[in-house]
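Troubleshooting entry. The earlier prediction with S-adenosylmethionine gave an output that would not parse, so I re-checked the input for stray whitespace and re-submitted. Clean input:
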Amino acid sequence: MDVVEFGCGTGRITEAIAPYARNLALVDYSETMVTAVAQKFPESQTIGADTSDAVTALLRGGRSMSFDLVTAFWSLSYPIGEFFEELSPAGVRPRCDQVRSREQARQFVLDLVGLVAPGGHLLAMLFDAESPEQQLVTRAWEAVAPFPDGGRAYTRNILVDALRDAENQGDGTLTHTRLGGVAWAPSRDAARDWFFGVHFKHHPQLLDDPALAIAVEEFIDRYEIAGGGVALPSGVHLIDFHAAAHPYASLPIGLSS
Ligand SMILES: C[S@@+](CC[C@H](N)C(=O)[O-])C[C@H]1O[C@@H](n2cnc3c(N)ncnc32)[C@H](O)[C@@H]1O
């Protein structure tokens, strides 16, 4: 099958899908990541670009409805969020016209669907913004810049709402599942690194916040387990859009039951 993965990173999940791919296109805006996956998957086509730019380029390059699998794992919130926020010299700032942002983000999702071949899937995994771990992360980042629409789940809501619209138009069917679990840190130090490195990106304002340091320690206290290590309650949203003709989609409402 023909596969494209956006925000592929080092190819952690790519390893699981590559064996099924006849043609594999890997996209990431980080040159470091693109170099890493080019070495790991030498047969693949690697694209160093922002996800939304890459989607536009692929559509313009004749790749519409051509991928059996369009995927993004823990990476789709970023391009969606970029329609709503911009990085300025003063930090992250909401864009002025949030109504326009919403429409652009919705169109981006529909463009992603436009890459999927008939019968194919758009498959995305997103972190669960409502888990205790992510609530702490959200509270921390809100001190740096507020999130649009009252919380970090807004990117997932944009994605799901746009896919539901696509389903209502008869372009396919949407399946949305939340899987609960834990993020495992083998030690307290690893859990601290997880928060301050992975989540807080060593942001100086967050590194220098004593109240946040206490909140992280209390969190780790709460979820440290007897045998050692910290089991951070977490979750993932699995979003699958199957581009299969919906048998009732073309019938007027009321005639479909
Ligand atoms: C959390 S990592 C996930 C990486 C990989 N999918 C995995 O599961 O291991 C997010 C990745 O998305 C990339 N990324 C973030 N925003 C992006 C954007 N707007 N366009 C393209 N890549 C982006 C980052 O460079 C990073 O490699």
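This one parsed fine. Residues 50-180+235-242 form one domain.
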